[in-house]
Amino acid sequence: MPVSLPYSEGAHIIQPNQAAEYLALMDIDIADIHESLAAGETASANTRTSAPVTAAGSRRWFDTTEVLRDHLRTKHNWNLTDPQNRPLASHPIKKYTLGIIGGNEDTGNPDVLAKPRANRAKGKATEQAVNSGDPVLFVLNAPEDQKATSVTNTPPEGDWFLLYYRAENELRCEVSLPYPNFKDGQFGDWQVRVLLQPIPFDTAIENIRDIGGGEIDFKIA
C-alpha cells in the first residue's frame, strides 16, 4: 500500500547512468543541461578580478538560466514564467516546473544523506512554492512486478531545481525535487535527486569566487 516516505530516510537517488532516461520522461535533455552549464562556465570565467565579488557567480547563473530556458521552450514547448521575479520553466502539460540555483559543496554528492543547499538563502517566494507541494508517495516493500510504477520510473510532479556547484576541478550538478520542509531561506530534505556526471575542467580554480547568483526573491508592493 502506498505510504509517504519519511524524509529522514534520505532521498531517492537516480544514478548518473540512469539520469538521461529519467529526465527524458520530463522532457529535459541532459545535452541541454550541459550546454547551459558550459555557457555559465564561460561567462563566469570571463569575469575580471576588478568586477564585484558576486559578478562571477551571478554571470554563471544568468547564462545557465537563459540557455536552459531557451532550450526547454524551443525544443519542448515549456512555458517561461517569472513569478515574483523567479525565472522558471513550466511543462506545457505535466505539472513540472524547473528553477536553476547555485548549490553548496554537497551538490552532486551521491551519499543518500548528503544535504544539498542553495549557496545563499532564498526568499519567501521560493519557500511558498516548495512548501505548497505534496510529498511523493512511495511503494515500500512492493513485489517486483509492482516496482515499475514506483518513483524510479515515474518522475513525480512538482517544483524541481537544477543545482550546480563549481568545485576546484569540476562542476557538479543534479536535478532534484525538494521535500516541502523549506525553512529559514533554505531547502530542508530532498525527495528525489537525479545526479549527473561531474563535468571535469583542465584548469583548476584555486580561489573560487563563484558566489552570488541564484533566484531573486523580493516582494513587490
Task: Walk me through the topology.
Elements: E1 3-4, E2 12-14, H1 16-24, H2 30-45, H3 55-76, E3 79-81, E4 88-90, E5 96-102, H4 124-131, E6 137-138, E7 158-166, E8 170-178, E9 190-195, E10 199-200
Parallel strand pairs: 2-9, 5-7
Antiparallel strand pairs: 1-6, 3-4, 4-5, 7-8, 8-9, 8-10
What do these coordinates show?
- There is one protein chain.
- This protein has 221 residues and is α+β, with helices and mostly antiparallel strands.
- Helices cover 25% and strands 21% of the residues.
- The protein is built from four helices and ten strands; from the N terminus they run ββαααβββαβββββ.
- It has helices spanning 16-24, 30-45, 55-76, 124-131; strands spanning 3-4, 12-14, 79-81, 88-90, 96-102, 137-138, 158-166, 170-178, 190-195, 199-200.
- Strands 2, 3, 4, 5, 7, 8, 9 and 10 form an eight-stranded mixed sheet that branches. Strands 1-6 form a two-stranded antiparallel sheet.
- Helix 2 runs antiparallel to helix 3.
- It is globular, with a radius of gyration of 17 Å.
- It starts with a strand and ends in a 21-residue tail after the last strand.
- Mean pLDDT is 82; it is low at 1-8 and 137-150.
